[in-house]
Amino acid sequence: MRNLKITLSYDGTDYSGWQVQPDAATIQGTLASVIGRVTGEKVLPQGSGRTDAGVHALAQVATFTFESSIPASNLAKAMNDLLPGSIRVLEAAEMPVDFHARKSARAKTYRYRMFRLPLCPPFLARYVWHYPYPLDEKAMQEAAELIIGEHDFTSFAAVDPERDEEVPRSNVRLVWDSVWERQAPDELIYTIRGNGFLHHMVRNLIGTFILVGKGTLKPCDISNIVHARDRSQAGATAPAAGLYLVNVEY
What we know:
The chain is α+β, with helices and mostly antiparallel strands. The chain has helices spanning 27-39, 72-82, 137-145, 201-214, 221-228, and strands at residues 2-10, 46-47, 56-66, 87-95, 107-115, 129-130, 149-152, 172-183, 187-194, 243-249.
């Protein structure tokens, strides 16, 4: 058996997330179908994580095992010939048998884009959260810095329908970078890098930072929300369109 690592880029707008679902278009399901057509084998590629419906990826990573002798580069080309234009295989490489896209991952980076001008171009609307209202961006940056470090992020975790609640799992995660940056004059960009992320965690952080920007919360309130370990204390979930999985580190 060969173990193949593929690096993917996709527009998640028209997909019901990564995870294969009955009667719904998903990234994983689309990949599995195409791999089957190319190799003649039934495989289910495993991603580094399950991006939600509408979330995009610049460099998602997936692995799968198969028996076909097709060279990796030829397999990538054949897949791109069959995949819809919204999904591209950027790279394919042979890996040791013990390499796994999710289990071997050591860090991930996500980016969130907010468009700040009054009118959002129609060709950009699928890829940003259009938010033209006043925000204290300096306060949002102060708040973002307070989640750096190792914390229990239960307050920012949505209930995961795929998670087995009978198996205890920690909600503690380590965040190395958390920063808002203005890309003048039109976009406000949030970047976060950590060793892992909970279900909807990044989007729930965004929704909470927005409350700081609006003045509903103070930056110092973020620490209290983290310590509360109570989802009801944090803000609403930000829209999926602005979120991107930027890269995965191994």
